[in-house]
Amino acid sequence: MIENGNMPVIEFTKVCKTYRGHRGMGELIPGAKAASEVRALDDISFRLEKGRVLGLVGESGSGKSTLANVLVGLEPPSSGQMLFQGTDLATLRKANKRAFHGQVQMIFQDPYASLNPRFTVRQTVEEPLIIHRYPRQDRTRLVIDALERSELRPASAFIDKYPHEMSGGQRQRVAIARAIVLGPSVLVADEPVSMLDVSVRAGILRLLRSLIDRLGMTLIFITHDLSLIGQICDDLMILYRGKVAEFGPAIAILDHPRHPYTQQLMAAVPVPDARSRPAELPARLMNSLAVVDEGPKCSFEPRCIYAVDICRSVVPAARSIDKTEVACHRAQELEKSATSKEI
Amino acid sequence: MSLLDVRDLTVIYRTGNKSVQALNRVSFSLERGEALGVVGESGCGKSTLAKAILALLPRNAQVINGSAVLDGAKLYEAGAEELRRLRWTAMAYVTQSAMDSLNPVARILDQFTQTGRAHGHNDVRSRAEALFRDVGLDARWLRSYPHELSGGMRQRVIIALALLFEPPLLIADEPTTGLDVIVQRQVLDLLRRIRAEHGTGVIFISHDIAVIAQLCSSVAVMYGGRIVEKGSTIDVLERPQHPYTMGLKQAFPDMRDARRELIHIAGTPPTPDEPVDACLFAARCPFAQDVCRTQAPPLRQIAGHQVACHLAERAADFRRRAVSPSIWVRPE
Fold it and tell me: pTM for the full model?
């Protein structure tokens, strides 16, 4: 969708990731049925340019964590291709792979769990530099630089502290310093503020945004909280059962969600207003365990109130509407009816 | 008579030879069918409050002052046996990770049966089936094991289990945190229905003011072990009198105005230490004056709700200024 000729930092082409299902005792019995396959990512294609922040939203089981794992190189795709700055990861040799891992860094949800409690801030932030064989004389300067960029100022006040001596917000800043110390080009942040106190969340979001803007990085922001998207994201991708339901500029989607799933997700988000009565959600949507029978159909169909015959027999291809890609057979007509209702 | 009456509840934790005050003279009452939201950040004492009411405090904690009376029963004068009976039958507790507290190797119906037997009820099957209908689960799931259910379904099983003896009081501590929004909505709808249909009093503890706005008729804002503001949810959210409540409101995102700049309250919540003669929020408050640093503000009745702020008379002016993110920025 974003087409201005720049080479994308990340490019996914028809990426699939399948896992084998639970290995039960049955597998030990000769002739028993093989474990079923779970398709965690199903034909994902997108490109992401330098300096952008992409919000990745979906329910648990939507594939957003799998997408992150493939993106940072923790898991190879089962099929399809992932290009990082034009290079296919699968073709990288060991040394280049290490360089790639330095280029793509992760920030985790829980700064209480992601930091080693026995490491000082210095040890935590310095560790990636040691792994990537930076000379000793440069390390302290790089650690201090990363801490100051993460707004732990003065760095000297924090560098010898242990995680338990800091607040949740400060710990997450240490995790951010560790992630940026190698000067990566891509950050993947998995729910980076959901464990933090409300009063400090905006500070962390603002820090991430300013680091992306100043250091020219790209950020994948994984969350299930749609109300944070407008705060930090340029682009938004809604995942449903391993497929892209909707992808486009974040504000455009928040203003005009076109996929029925996006619309329902947005309607379910509570708002801090005691007078607003929450909109009824359709019972069909609540049926989260709805059986998805295999075969060509829309995977959201069992929960969709707009489903018609074609949804039960044809997989919806992504279609472009304005700047957004929507994988819904009825996106165009639903859009029209929504608009006419407003009038 | 109120369903629950908590007066001057003060709880300390002892660690080594230090003691820290987790709750400081907390008072409130809850009527039948009322849903009270308790909102605050980590360390504000909201979970200690839940455990203190349930008399489930850990060994190193002690109620050093105050009382809690549930339906006429004085909880801190009750013996261990009476408390054991009151839990489940008179008050039930649902925690954030409650869905992981189901026994993984027992069918769900067996877990209902065991809980029933522990309280002298041998056949709870039909009751369990009715509760499953109430929480929107098909009764066939009673025969399943916990791992066969989704997180939201397990959380609803826990709520059904908590309602087994129709307790008049349900205390829920972050029961929807970490759940997907659609599942969260199911749990909230369920709690709202239980409250309306059974007249259950609900104490709903959360950091999420949007969830509290949708469920609770009244709200208590806690900071540093104290209630700093309390009133009807509409009143407190629309006309907050305490600067901390104003900050929380401005820090919270709202789907309807996705691009509004959120504020960040500089500084960190206080660590519960020896009681100090000051407003505990003064160090982070953009409006603090000398009096705030030398005297603890009492909880006072002002304009329809209670607030513990020396400067509450100037709240209207503070509210106007609180929307600006720059006013909250201070060096950490």
Answer: 0.90
